[in-house]
Amino acid sequence: xxxxxxxxxxxxxxxxxxxxxxxxxxxxxxxxxxxxxxxxxxxxxxxxxxxxxxxxxxxxxxxxxxxxxxxxxxxxxxxxxxxxxxxxxxxxxxxxxxxxxxxxxxxxxxxxxxxxxxxxxxxxxxxxxxxxxxxxxxxxxxxxxxxxxxxxxxxxxxxxxxxxxxxxxxxxxxxxxxxxxxxxxxxxxxxxxxxxxxxxxxxxxxxxxxxxxxxxxxxxxxxxxxxxxxxxxxxxxxxxxxxxxxxxxxxxxxxxxxxxxxxxxxxxxxxxxxxxxxxxxxxxxxxxxxxxxxxxxxxxxxxxxxxxxxxxxxxxxxxxxxxxxxxxxxxxxxxxxxxxxxxxxxxxxxxxxxxxxxxxxxxxxxxxxxxxxxxxxxxxxxxxxxxxxxxxxxxxxxxxxxxxxxxxxxxxxxxxxxxxxxxxxxxxxxxxxxxxxxxxxxxxxxxxxxxxxxxx
Length: 456
Ligand SMILES: Cc1ncc(COP(=O)(O)O)c(C=O)c1O
Hints:
Number of domains: 2
Structural class: alpha/beta
Strand order of the largest sheet: 4-10-9-8-7-5-6
Largest sheet: 7 strands, mixed
Number of strands: 17
CATH topology of the largest domain: Aspartate Aminotransferase, domain 2
Radius of gyration: 23 Å
Bound molecules: pyridoxal-5'-phosphate
Number of helices: 14
Oligomer: single chain
Shape: globular
Distance between the termini: 11 Å
CATH architecture of the largest domain: 3-Layer(aba) Sandwich
Helix content: 25-40%
Protein backbone atom coordinates (compact mmCIF):
# COMPACT_ATOMS: atom_id res chain seq x y z
CA UNK A 1 0.00 0.00 0.00
CA UNK A 2 2.91 2.37 0.65
CA UNK A 3 3.90 1.88 -2.93
CA UNK A 4 0.48 3.05 -3.98
CA UNK A 5 0.58 6.18 -1.87
CA UNK A 6 3.95 7.19 -3.15
CA UNK A 7 3.31 6.16 -6.73
CA UNK A 8 3.29 8.94 -9.30
CA UNK A 9 -0.17 9.65 -10.62
CA UNK A 10 -0.88 8.48 -14.10
CA UNK A 11 -0.33 11.60 -16.17
CA UNK A 12 -3.18 10.79 -18.46
CA UNK A 13 -5.84 11.29 -15.77
CA UNK A 14 -4.27 14.20 -13.92
CA UNK A 15 -6.54 17.24 -14.33
CA UNK A 16 -5.15 20.45 -15.77
CA UNK A 17 -2.92 22.31 -13.30
CA UNK A 18 -4.83 24.53 -10.94
CA UNK A 19 -8.06 22.59 -11.14
CA UNK A 20 -7.26 19.93 -8.56
CA UNK A 21 -8.69 20.91 -5.18
CA UNK A 22 -5.63 20.20 -3.04
CA UNK A 23 -7.27 20.89 0.27
CA UNK A 24 -6.50 20.80 3.96
CA UNK A 25 -8.92 18.07 4.92
CA UNK A 26 -12.04 20.24 5.15
CA UNK A 27 -13.95 20.29 1.95
CA UNK A 28 -13.23 22.99 -0.55
CA UNK A 29 -16.86 22.67 -1.52
CA UNK A 30 -17.48 22.76 -5.22
CA UNK A 31 -21.15 22.20 -4.53
CA UNK A 32 -23.24 22.58 -1.41
CA UNK A 33 -23.76 18.99 -0.48
CA UNK A 34 -25.60 19.48 2.79
CA UNK A 35 -24.82 19.96 6.47
CA UNK A 36 -21.60 18.67 7.97
CA UNK A 37 -21.81 15.10 9.29
CA UNK A 38 -19.18 14.51 11.97
CA UNK A 39 -17.45 11.20 12.69
CA UNK A 40 -19.39 8.90 14.96
CA UNK A 41 -16.33 7.87 16.94
CA UNK A 42 -12.64 8.77 16.95
CA UNK A 43 -10.31 6.45 15.06
CA UNK A 44 -6.54 6.25 15.28
CA UNK A 45 -4.76 8.15 12.54
CA UNK A 46 -7.66 10.41 11.61
CA UNK A 47 -5.33 13.42 11.37
CA UNK A 48 -2.62 11.72 9.32
CA UNK A 49 -1.25 13.88 6.55
CA UNK A 50 -0.19 12.33 3.27
CA UNK A 51 1.80 13.65 0.33
CA UNK A 52 0.03 14.94 -2.76
CA UNK A 53 1.27 16.82 -5.75
CA UNK A 54 2.46 20.17 -4.49
CA UNK A 55 2.24 19.50 -0.76
CA UNK A 56 0.36 17.43 1.73
CA UNK A 57 -3.24 17.01 2.89
CA UNK A 58 -5.14 15.24 5.63
CA UNK A 59 -5.75 11.66 4.53
CA UNK A 60 -9.32 10.87 3.54
CA UNK A 61 -9.59 7.19 4.32
CA UNK A 62 -12.33 5.77 2.15
CA UNK A 63 -11.05 2.23 2.27
CA UNK A 64 -12.70 0.90 5.43
CA UNK A 65 -13.97 -2.22 3.68
CA UNK A 66 -10.39 -3.40 3.12
CA UNK A 67 -9.22 -2.66 6.67
CA UNK A 68 -10.90 -0.19 9.02
CA UNK A 69 -8.73 2.02 11.20
CA UNK A 70 -8.67 1.09 14.87
CA UNK A 71 -11.22 2.80 17.06
CA UNK A 72 -9.30 4.98 19.51
CA UNK A 73 -10.83 3.17 22.50
CA UNK A 74 -9.81 -0.21 21.09
CA UNK A 75 -6.24 0.95 20.52
CA UNK A 76 -5.93 2.27 24.05
CA UNK A 77 -7.47 -0.86 25.61
CA UNK A 78 -5.15 -3.12 23.62
CA UNK A 79 -2.16 -0.95 24.56
CA UNK A 80 -3.17 -1.51 28.19
CA UNK A 81 -3.33 -5.28 27.68
CA UNK A 82 0.09 -5.16 26.00
CA UNK A 83 1.57 -4.02 29.31
CA UNK A 84 0.50 -7.32 30.86
CA UNK A 85 1.05 -9.50 27.83
CA UNK A 86 2.42 -13.03 28.32
CA UNK A 87 1.89 -16.56 27.00
CA UNK A 88 -1.58 -18.12 26.74
CA UNK A 89 -2.36 -21.56 28.22
CA UNK A 90 1.32 -22.19 28.77
CA UNK A 91 2.48 -20.55 31.96
CA UNK A 92 1.77 -20.59 35.69
CA UNK A 93 3.10 -17.07 36.12
CA UNK A 94 0.70 -14.32 37.07
CA UNK A 95 0.79 -12.53 33.73
CA UNK A 96 0.26 -15.79 31.85
CA UNK A 97 -2.81 -16.34 33.96
CA UNK A 98 -4.04 -12.80 33.31
CA UNK A 99 -3.44 -13.13 29.57
CA UNK A 100 -5.06 -16.57 29.43
CA UNK A 101 -8.13 -15.22 31.23
CA UNK A 102 -8.34 -12.30 28.80
CA UNK A 103 -7.98 -14.61 25.81
CA UNK A 104 -10.72 -16.95 27.01
CA UNK A 105 -12.94 -14.05 28.06
CA UNK A 106 -12.59 -12.68 24.53
CA UNK A 107 -14.59 -15.68 23.28
CA UNK A 108 -17.45 -14.81 25.63
CA UNK A 109 -17.39 -11.17 24.53
CA UNK A 110 -17.55 -12.16 20.86
CA UNK A 111 -20.32 -14.68 21.55
CA UNK A 112 -22.36 -12.04 23.39
CA UNK A 113 -21.76 -9.40 20.69
CA UNK A 114 -23.07 -11.60 17.88
CA UNK A 115 -25.77 -13.01 20.16
CA UNK A 116 -24.50 -16.56 19.87
CA UNK A 117 -25.93 -19.60 21.61
CA UNK A 118 -24.39 -20.40 24.99
CA UNK A 119 -22.89 -23.64 23.68
CA UNK A 120 -21.54 -22.25 20.40
CA UNK A 121 -17.84 -22.85 19.84
CA UNK A 122 -15.80 -19.69 19.21
CA UNK A 123 -12.53 -20.34 17.37
CA UNK A 124 -10.04 -17.53 16.83
CA UNK A 125 -8.55 -17.70 13.36
CA UNK A 126 -6.21 -15.55 11.30
CA UNK A 127 -9.02 -13.78 9.43
CA UNK A 128 -12.29 -14.49 7.62
CA UNK A 129 -10.50 -16.44 4.91
CA UNK A 130 -8.98 -18.72 7.51
CA UNK A 131 -12.32 -18.99 9.32
CA UNK A 132 -14.13 -20.11 6.16
CA UNK A 133 -11.34 -22.55 5.31
CA UNK A 134 -11.82 -23.98 8.80
CA UNK A 135 -15.56 -24.14 8.15
CA UNK A 136 -14.86 -26.00 4.91
CA UNK A 137 -12.65 -28.38 6.86
CA UNK A 138 -15.38 -29.26 9.38
CA UNK A 139 -18.37 -29.27 7.00
CA UNK A 140 -19.50 -32.66 5.75
CA UNK A 141 -21.28 -32.95 2.40
CA UNK A 142 -22.33 -30.49 -0.29
CA UNK A 143 -22.35 -26.73 0.00
CA UNK A 144 -24.61 -24.35 -1.90
CA UNK A 145 -23.05 -21.00 -2.64
CA UNK A 146 -23.81 -17.98 -4.84
CA UNK A 147 -21.55 -16.84 -7.67
CA UNK A 148 -21.31 -13.30 -6.29
CA UNK A 149 -19.17 -14.19 -3.30
CA UNK A 150 -15.76 -12.94 -2.25
CA UNK A 151 -13.21 -15.63 -3.14
CA UNK A 152 -12.88 -16.38 0.59
CA UNK A 153 -16.42 -17.74 0.55
CA UNK A 154 -16.11 -19.45 -2.82
CA UNK A 155 -12.75 -21.12 -3.27
CA UNK A 156 -12.66 -23.09 0.02
CA UNK A 157 -15.89 -24.82 -1.05
CA UNK A 158 -14.58 -25.57 -4.54
CA UNK A 159 -11.41 -27.22 -3.23
CA UNK A 160 -11.68 -30.96 -3.71
CA UNK A 161 -12.78 -32.92 -0.64
CA UNK A 162 -12.82 -36.69 -0.83
CA UNK A 163 -11.85 -36.40 -4.46
CA UNK A 164 -14.49 -33.94 -5.64
CA UNK A 165 -15.60 -30.33 -5.38
CA UNK A 166 -18.73 -30.17 -3.23
CA UNK A 167 -19.60 -26.57 -4.17
CA UNK A 168 -22.97 -26.23 -5.91
CA UNK A 169 -22.78 -22.74 -7.32
CA UNK A 170 -26.03 -20.88 -7.92
CA UNK A 171 -26.08 -17.91 -10.26
CA UNK A 172 -27.54 -14.90 -8.49
CA UNK A 173 -30.53 -13.35 -10.26
CA UNK A 174 -31.27 -9.69 -10.92
CA UNK A 175 -33.35 -9.46 -7.77
CA UNK A 176 -32.84 -10.75 -4.26
CA UNK A 177 -36.30 -12.22 -4.38
CA UNK A 178 -35.52 -14.36 -7.44
CA UNK A 179 -32.15 -15.29 -5.97
CA UNK A 180 -33.89 -16.69 -2.88
CA UNK A 181 -36.11 -18.75 -5.18
CA UNK A 182 -33.06 -20.05 -7.11
CA UNK A 183 -31.28 -20.99 -3.88
CA UNK A 184 -34.35 -22.76 -2.59
CA UNK A 185 -34.66 -24.73 -5.84
CA UNK A 186 -31.04 -25.85 -5.59
CA UNK A 187 -31.40 -26.87 -1.94
CA UNK A 188 -34.60 -28.75 -2.75
CA UNK A 189 -33.05 -30.55 -5.72
CA UNK A 190 -30.79 -32.76 -3.58
CA UNK A 191 -29.48 -32.73 -0.03
CA UNK A 192 -26.81 -30.20 0.93
CA UNK A 193 -25.14 -29.75 4.30
CA UNK A 194 -24.66 -26.02 4.12
CA UNK A 195 -25.69 -22.80 2.47
CA UNK A 196 -22.73 -20.40 2.60
CA UNK A 197 -23.62 -16.76 1.94
CA UNK A 198 -22.20 -13.32 2.40
CA UNK A 199 -24.17 -10.95 4.59
CA UNK A 200 -23.06 -7.82 2.69
CA UNK A 201 -21.31 -7.60 -0.66
CA UNK A 202 -17.76 -6.28 -0.49
CA UNK A 203 -18.23 -4.82 -3.99
CA UNK A 204 -21.55 -2.99 -3.68
CA UNK A 205 -22.34 -3.08 0.04
CA UNK A 206 -25.79 -4.57 -0.62
CA UNK A 207 -27.10 -6.46 2.39
CA UNK A 208 -28.74 -9.86 1.98
CA UNK A 209 -31.74 -11.01 4.07
CA UNK A 210 -29.93 -13.41 6.37
CA UNK A 211 -33.02 -14.46 8.34
CA UNK A 212 -34.84 -15.48 5.14
CA UNK A 213 -31.78 -17.32 3.83
CA UNK A 214 -31.46 -19.22 7.11
CA UNK A 215 -35.12 -20.27 6.95
CA UNK A 216 -34.68 -21.51 3.39
CA UNK A 217 -31.58 -23.52 4.33
CA UNK A 218 -33.21 -25.02 7.39
CA UNK A 219 -36.38 -25.90 5.47
CA UNK A 220 -34.25 -28.20 3.34
CA UNK A 221 -32.16 -29.70 6.13
CA UNK A 222 -29.06 -27.57 5.49
CA UNK A 223 -27.21 -25.30 7.89
CA UNK A 224 -26.17 -21.77 7.03
CA UNK A 225 -22.78 -20.12 7.23
CA UNK A 226 -22.72 -16.34 7.04
CA UNK A 227 -19.64 -14.48 5.83
CA UNK A 228 -20.09 -11.39 7.97
CA UNK A 229 -16.76 -9.76 7.09
CA UNK A 230 -18.56 -6.71 5.72
CA UNK A 231 -21.51 -6.71 8.09
CA UNK A 232 -20.38 -7.18 11.64
CA UNK A 233 -19.05 -3.64 12.07
CA UNK A 234 -22.04 -2.06 10.38
CA UNK A 235 -25.26 -3.70 11.53
CA UNK A 236 -26.54 -5.51 14.60
CA UNK A 237 -26.28 -9.24 14.02
CA UNK A 238 -27.87 -12.00 16.05
CA UNK A 239 -26.97 -15.62 15.52
CA UNK A 240 -29.99 -16.68 17.51
CA UNK A 241 -32.64 -14.44 16.01
CA UNK A 242 -31.38 -14.72 12.44
CA UNK A 243 -31.05 -18.51 12.82
CA UNK A 244 -27.38 -18.56 11.82
CA UNK A 245 -25.43 -21.78 12.33
CA UNK A 246 -21.91 -20.46 11.59
CA UNK A 247 -20.62 -16.90 11.39
CA UNK A 248 -17.20 -15.78 10.17
CA UNK A 249 -15.60 -12.35 10.35
CA UNK A 250 -12.27 -10.52 10.61
CA UNK A 251 -11.13 -8.12 13.30
CA UNK A 252 -9.32 -5.82 10.89
CA UNK A 253 -12.55 -4.84 9.14
CA UNK A 254 -14.22 -4.19 12.49
CA UNK A 255 -11.87 -1.57 13.94
CA UNK A 256 -9.69 -4.22 15.63
CA UNK A 257 -6.01 -4.20 14.66
CA UNK A 258 -3.48 -7.03 15.15
CA UNK A 259 -5.01 -9.45 12.66
CA UNK A 260 -7.32 -12.13 13.96
CA UNK A 261 -10.64 -13.55 12.86
CA UNK A 262 -13.49 -15.60 14.26
CA UNK A 263 -15.51 -18.64 13.33
CA UNK A 264 -18.40 -19.17 15.72
CA UNK A 265 -21.09 -21.80 15.52
CA UNK A 266 -22.57 -25.14 16.42
CA UNK A 267 -20.09 -27.29 18.26
CA UNK A 268 -20.92 -30.75 16.85
CA UNK A 269 -19.18 -30.25 13.50
CA UNK A 270 -16.16 -28.68 15.21
CA UNK A 271 -15.84 -31.68 17.52
CA UNK A 272 -16.46 -34.31 14.86
CA UNK A 273 -13.78 -33.01 12.50
CA UNK A 274 -10.08 -33.78 12.63
CA UNK A 275 -8.04 -30.90 14.12
CA UNK A 276 -7.53 -28.06 11.64
CA UNK A 277 -3.85 -27.88 12.60
CA UNK A 278 -1.89 -30.63 14.32
CA UNK A 279 0.27 -29.48 17.19
CA UNK A 280 0.57 -28.38 20.78
CA UNK A 281 -2.48 -27.00 22.51
CA UNK A 282 -4.91 -29.12 20.47
CA UNK A 283 -3.97 -32.33 22.23
CA UNK A 284 -5.10 -33.86 25.52
CA UNK A 285 -2.51 -36.65 25.32
CA UNK A 286 0.07 -37.80 22.81
CA UNK A 287 1.33 -41.35 22.85
CA UNK A 288 3.66 -42.51 20.15
CA UNK A 289 2.73 -46.10 20.95
CA UNK A 290 -0.59 -47.86 20.70
CA UNK A 291 -2.61 -45.20 22.52
CA UNK A 292 -2.08 -42.61 19.80
CA UNK A 293 -3.05 -38.96 20.17
CA UNK A 294 -6.12 -37.79 22.03
CA UNK A 295 -7.37 -34.44 20.78
CA UNK A 296 -9.27 -31.82 22.73
CA UNK A 297 -12.82 -30.95 21.81
CA UNK A 298 -14.06 -27.37 21.56
CA UNK A 299 -12.09 -24.41 20.29
CA UNK A 300 -8.71 -25.77 21.44
CA UNK A 301 -9.05 -28.67 18.98
CA UNK A 302 -8.65 -26.24 16.08
CA UNK A 303 -6.27 -23.71 17.62
CA UNK A 304 -2.97 -25.59 17.81
CA UNK A 305 0.11 -23.44 18.43
CA UNK A 306 0.41 -20.17 20.32
CA UNK A 307 -2.60 -18.03 19.49
CA UNK A 308 -2.68 -14.43 18.36
CA UNK A 309 -3.70 -13.20 21.78
CA UNK A 310 -3.57 -9.48 21.01
CA UNK A 311 -5.64 -10.07 17.90
CA UNK A 312 -8.29 -11.88 19.95
CA UNK A 313 -8.29 -9.27 22.72
CA UNK A 314 -8.49 -6.57 20.11
CA UNK A 315 -11.58 -8.18 18.54
CA UNK A 316 -13.21 -8.42 21.96
CA UNK A 317 -12.46 -4.76 22.67
CA UNK A 318 -13.86 -3.79 19.27
CA UNK A 319 -17.03 -5.79 19.98
CA UNK A 320 -17.43 -3.91 23.26
CA UNK A 321 -16.77 -0.57 21.58
CA UNK A 322 -19.24 -1.31 18.77
CA UNK A 323 -21.86 -2.41 21.28
CA UNK A 324 -21.31 0.86 23.20
CA UNK A 325 -21.61 2.90 20.00
CA UNK A 326 -24.81 1.06 19.13
CA UNK A 327 -24.82 -0.75 15.78
CA UNK A 328 -28.07 1.01 14.90
CA UNK A 329 -26.32 4.41 15.20
CA UNK A 330 -23.53 3.16 12.98
CA UNK A 331 -26.21 2.18 10.46
CA UNK A 332 -27.76 5.68 10.58
CA UNK A 333 -24.37 7.33 10.21
CA UNK A 334 -23.48 5.24 7.18
CA UNK A 335 -26.92 5.69 5.66
CA UNK A 336 -26.54 9.50 5.85
CA UNK A 337 -23.09 9.30 4.22
CA UNK A 338 -24.33 6.81 1.59
CA UNK A 339 -27.22 9.11 0.69
CA UNK A 340 -24.84 12.04 0.23
CA UNK A 341 -22.38 9.97 -1.76
CA UNK A 342 -25.06 8.44 -3.98
CA UNK A 343 -26.63 11.83 -4.73
CA UNK A 344 -23.21 13.26 -5.54
CA UNK A 345 -22.13 10.35 -7.72
CA UNK A 346 -25.42 10.44 -9.62
CA UNK A 347 -24.74 14.07 -10.51
CA UNK A 348 -21.33 13.36 -12.04
CA UNK A 349 -21.60 12.42 -15.68
CA UNK A 350 -19.52 9.35 -16.43
CA UNK A 351 -19.61 7.82 -12.96
CA UNK A 352 -21.50 4.54 -12.91
CA UNK A 353 -22.39 2.95 -9.58
CA UNK A 354 -22.31 -0.85 -9.35
CA UNK A 355 -25.29 -2.77 -8.11
CA UNK A 356 -26.05 -6.48 -8.11
CA UNK A 357 -29.75 -6.51 -7.24
CA UNK A 358 -32.47 -4.17 -8.51
CA UNK A 359 -34.57 -4.74 -5.36
CA UNK A 360 -31.96 -4.36 -2.63
CA UNK A 361 -32.97 -1.80 -0.01
CA UNK A 362 -30.13 -1.89 2.51
CA UNK A 363 -26.46 -1.12 1.98
CA UNK A 364 -23.48 -0.80 4.29
CA UNK A 365 -20.96 2.00 3.74
CA UNK A 366 -19.59 0.70 0.45
CA UNK A 367 -19.94 2.21 -3.02
CA UNK A 368 -18.47 0.44 -6.03
CA UNK A 369 -18.36 2.41 -9.26
CA UNK A 370 -16.61 2.90 -12.56
CA UNK A 371 -15.65 6.11 -14.33
CA UNK A 372 -16.20 6.21 -18.08
CA UNK A 373 -12.96 6.42 -19.98
CA UNK A 374 -10.72 6.00 -16.94
CA UNK A 375 -9.16 2.75 -15.83
CA UNK A 376 -9.98 1.96 -12.18
CA UNK A 377 -6.31 1.85 -11.25
CA UNK A 378 -5.73 5.25 -12.78
CA UNK A 379 -8.71 6.74 -10.92
CA UNK A 380 -7.45 5.36 -7.60
CA UNK A 381 -3.96 6.69 -8.27
CA UNK A 382 -5.33 10.09 -9.18
CA UNK A 383 -7.45 10.27 -6.03
CA UNK A 384 -4.44 9.39 -3.93
CA UNK A 385 -1.75 11.45 -5.57
CA UNK A 386 -3.79 14.58 -6.26
CA UNK A 387 -6.28 14.55 -3.39
CA UNK A 388 -4.94 12.37 -0.60
CA UNK A 389 -7.99 10.10 -0.83
CA UNK A 390 -7.56 6.37 -0.25
CA UNK A 391 -9.95 4.09 -2.15
CA UNK A 392 -9.64 0.55 -3.40
CA UNK A 393 -9.53 -0.46 -7.05
CA UNK A 394 -9.37 -3.83 -8.75
CA UNK A 395 -11.56 -6.86 -8.75
CA UNK A 396 -12.01 -7.01 -4.99
CA UNK A 397 -11.30 -10.75 -4.82
CA UNK A 398 -14.67 -11.24 -6.46
CA UNK A 399 -13.65 -11.93 -10.07
CA UNK A 400 -16.81 -13.84 -11.07
CA UNK A 401 -18.97 -10.99 -9.77
CA UNK A 402 -16.98 -8.29 -11.57
CA UNK A 403 -17.29 -10.27 -14.80
CA UNK A 404 -21.03 -10.61 -14.26
CA UNK A 405 -21.35 -6.89 -13.66
CA UNK A 406 -19.64 -6.31 -17.00
CA UNK A 407 -16.39 -5.01 -15.53
CA UNK A 408 -13.85 -7.82 -15.84
CA UNK A 409 -11.12 -5.18 -15.68
CA UNK A 410 -12.28 -4.09 -12.22
CA UNK A 411 -13.81 -1.02 -10.64
CA UNK A 412 -13.26 1.54 -7.89
CA UNK A 413 -14.63 1.16 -4.37
CA UNK A 414 -15.12 3.84 -1.74
CA UNK A 415 -16.00 2.58 1.71
CA UNK A 416 -16.47 4.18 5.07
CA UNK A 417 -17.59 3.79 8.65
CA UNK A 418 -17.59 5.26 12.13
CA UNK A 419 -14.61 7.58 11.63
CA UNK A 420 -15.82 9.04 8.33
CA UNK A 421 -17.15 12.59 8.04
CA UNK A 422 -19.12 14.21 5.26
CA UNK A 423 -15.94 16.09 4.33
CA UNK A 424 -14.32 12.81 3.31
CA UNK A 425 -17.28 12.08 1.06
CA UNK A 426 -17.35 15.63 -0.33
CA UNK A 427 -13.66 15.52 -1.13
CA UNK A 428 -14.20 12.35 -3.15
CA UNK A 429 -17.14 13.89 -5.00
CA UNK A 430 -15.23 17.09 -5.70
CA UNK A 431 -12.23 15.15 -6.97
CA UNK A 432 -14.36 12.99 -9.26
CA UNK A 433 -16.21 16.05 -10.51
CA UNK A 434 -12.87 17.59 -11.41
CA UNK A 435 -11.68 14.39 -13.07
CA UNK A 436 -14.83 13.94 -15.12
CA UNK A 437 -14.88 17.58 -16.08
CA UNK A 438 -11.48 17.19 -17.71
CA UNK A 439 -11.40 15.81 -21.18
CA UNK A 440 -8.19 13.76 -21.01
CA UNK A 441 -9.22 10.14 -20.52
CA UNK A 442 -7.48 6.83 -20.56
CA UNK A 443 -8.41 3.21 -20.60
CA UNK A 444 -4.95 2.00 -19.76
CA UNK A 445 -2.88 2.14 -16.65
CA UNK A 446 0.77 1.79 -15.89
CA UNK A 447 0.19 -0.73 -13.12
CA UNK A 448 -1.56 -4.03 -12.63
CA UNK A 449 -4.70 -4.08 -10.51
CA UNK A 450 -3.96 -4.60 -6.84
CA UNK A 451 -5.78 -7.93 -6.84
CA UNK A 452 -2.78 -9.39 -8.56
CA UNK A 453 -0.61 -8.70 -5.57
CA UNK A 454 -2.87 -8.04 -2.61
CA UNK A 455 -5.64 -10.16 -1.24
CA UNK A 456 -8.19 -7.98 0.60
C1 LIG B 1 -17.15 -10.33 2.14
C2 LIG B 1 -15.73 -10.70 2.47
N1 LIG B 1 -15.47 -11.95 2.84
C3 LIG B 1 -14.23 -12.34 3.16
C4 LIG B 1 -13.17 -11.47 3.11
C5 LIG B 1 -11.80 -11.94 3.47
O1 LIG B 1 -11.40 -11.30 4.64
P1 LIG B 1 -9.91 -11.46 5.14
O2 LIG B 1 -9.03 -10.86 4.10
O3 LIG B 1 -9.86 -10.72 6.42
O4 LIG B 1 -9.67 -12.91 5.31
C6 LIG B 1 -13.39 -10.16 2.71
C7 LIG B 1 -12.26 -9.21 2.58
O5 LIG B 1 -12.30 -8.24 1.89
C8 LIG B 1 -14.69 -9.76 2.39
O6 LIG B 1 -14.96 -8.52 2.02
